[in-house]
């Protein structure tokens, strides 16, 4: 298999995520674009697992983890990133909902800064 | 071109196409549903790449939990069902930056890996991933569980009005003073 294909797909997904984060005004849509970016990173990790493992046949893994380790843990890191994304979206949506309860709006470029709050 | 290549190209096209719709659609709910398609196609890519457990965790956590949470938030903020106006800033700068990042990374990867044929990965069983998590990466795993717990507690504290949250219109003078940097 040619690993260039998933790498290029991941790069395109990351670019789309950046585009969405900058362009969207709705906070929930910004969170969706962040999910796209995290997903692209996951794809890169899993693909690197495939590409690097075939180059590392016979190479011992991390020294601190002998004899239990193998070279190439991209899948494990992808799982960690998925868990981090779940935590991030939980806290992010709590903030968005609390802000909506206070101001009845979710447009992120209308968030007042500290000195405007006082008026 | 092997079967795996054709599958990866097809799934990648679906993922990128629906990803484009996620960041351009004018309907909030449709945006979330296109996100399901994009994440599902990525899960298919993981399957082709041999990371079976990651694919199913992706379906469970991302498609099952995260997207449902996002759609809940869309509905709790009383988003209109139809197309909403004023959802986007002007597209020029963001398209420039996004295309720059995407094409730059793609050129980097294409230059680094060229068109080299790699051997097909052995289907990664859950046993191997489990051995790695609870052998090599057990400390990050435990730290991650603490982080998840603190994120949960933080989300609960944030969304309960009776602990910690301040209501903006009825600020006491002391609180207002605290917020303004000297």
Automatic annotation (TrEMBL), chain A:
GO MF terms held by the record: NADH dehydrogenase (quinone) (non-electrogenic) activity; quinone binding
Transmembrane spans: 6-22, 29-56, 76-97
UniProt keyword annotation of Chloroplast present: no
Gene Ontology CC terms, in alphabetical order: NADH dehydrogenase complex; plasma membrane
Enzyme nomenclature, EC number: 7.1.1.-
Top-level taxon of the source organism: Bacteria
Subcellular location: Cell membrane; Membrane
Record carries keyword Transmembrane helix: yes
Signal peptide positions on this chain: none
Keywords carried by this UniProt record: Cell membrane, Membrane, NAD, Quinone, Translocase, Transmembrane, Transmembrane helix, Transport
Primary subcellular site in the record, as a coarse category: membrane
Catalysed reaction, written as an equation: a quinone + NADH + 5 H(+)(in) = a quinol + NAD(+) + 4 H(+)(out)
Bilayer disposition of the protein: Multi-pass membrane protein
Example GO BP: ATP synthesis coupled electron transport
Known role: NDH-1 shuttles electrons from NADH, via FMN and iron-sulfur (Fe-S) centers, to quinones in the respiratory chain. The immediate electron acceptor for the enzyme in this species is believed to be a menaquinone. Couples the redox reaction to proton translocation (for every two electrons transferred, four hydrogen ions are translocated across the cytoplasmic membrane), and thus conserves the redox energy in a proton gradient.
UniProt-listed NCBIfam families: PRK05715.1-2
Membership in a protein family: Belongs to the complex I subunit 4L family.
Subunit record text: NDH-1 is composed of 14 different subunits. Subunits NuoA, H, J, K, L, M, N constitute the membrane sector of the complex.
The protein, known as: NADH-quinone oxidoreductase subunit K
Classification of source organism: Bacteria, Bacillati, Actinomycetota, Actinomycetes, Micromonosporales
TrEMBL record, chain B:
InterPro entries: NADH_UbQ/plastoQ_OxRdtase_su6, Nuo/plastoQ_OxRdtase_6_NuoJ
Transmembrane segment boundaries: 6-24, 31-49, 55-74, 95-116, 136-158
Keywords: Cell membrane, Membrane, NAD, Quinone, Transmembrane, Transmembrane helix
Gene3D superfamilies: NADH-ubiquinone/plastoquinone oxidoreductase chain 6, subunit NuoJ
Entry's EC annotation: 7.1.1.-
CC terms in the record's Gene Ontology section: plasma membrane
Domain of life: Bacteria
Location relative to the cell: Cell membrane
Entry's family note: Belongs to the complex I subunit 6 family.
Protein name in the entry: NADH-quinone oxidoreductase subunit J
GO MF annotation: an example: quinone binding
Membrane topology: Multi-pass membrane protein
Purpose: NDH-1 shuttles electrons from NADH, via FMN and iron-sulfur (Fe-S) centers, to quinones in the respiratory chain. Couples the redox reaction to proton translocation (for every two electrons transferred, four hydrogen ions are translocated across the cytoplasmic membrane), and thus conserves the redox energy in a proton gradient.
Catalytic activity: a quinone + NADH + 5 H(+)(in) = a quinol + NAD(+) + 4 H(+)(out)
């Amino acid at each position: 298999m040619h690993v260039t294909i998933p790498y290029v797909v991941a790069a395109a997904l990351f670019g789309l995520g950046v585009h969405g984060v900058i362009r969207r005004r709705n906070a929930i849509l910004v969170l969706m674009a962040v999910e796209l970016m995290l997903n692209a990173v996951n794809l890169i990790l899993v693909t690197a697992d495939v590409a690097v493992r075939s180059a590392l046949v016979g190479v011992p893994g991390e020294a601190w983890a002998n004899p239990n380790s193998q070279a190439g843990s991209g899948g494990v890191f992808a799982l960690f990133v998925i868990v981090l994304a779940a935590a991030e979206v939980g806290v992010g949506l709590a903030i968005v909902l609390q802000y909506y309860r206070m101001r009845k709006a979710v447009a992120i470029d209308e968030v007042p800064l500290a000195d405007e709050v006082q008026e | 071109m092997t079967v795996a290549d054709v599958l990866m190209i097809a799934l990648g096209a679906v993922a990128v196409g629906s990803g484009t719709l996620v960041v351009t659609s004018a309907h909030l709910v449709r945006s979330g549903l296109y996100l399901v398609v994009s994440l599902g196609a990525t899960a298919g890519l993981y399957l082709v790449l041999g990371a079976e457990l990651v694919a199913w965790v992706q379906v469970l956590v991302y498609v099952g939990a995260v997207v449902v949470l996002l759609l809940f938030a869309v509905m709790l903020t009383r988003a209109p069902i139809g197309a909403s106006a004023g959802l986007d800033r002007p597209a020029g700068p963001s398209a420039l930056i996004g295309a720059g990042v995407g094409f730059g990374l793609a050129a980097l990867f294409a230059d680094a890996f060229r068109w080299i044929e790699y051997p097909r990965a052995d289907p990664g069983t859950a046993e191997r991933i489990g051995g790695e998590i609870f052998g090599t990466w057990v400390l990050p795993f435990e730290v991650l569980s603490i982080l998840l717990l603190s994120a949960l507690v933080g989300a609960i504290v944030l969304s309960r009005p009776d602990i910690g949250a301040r209501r903006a219109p009825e600020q006491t003078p002391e609180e207002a003073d605290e917020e303004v940097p000297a």
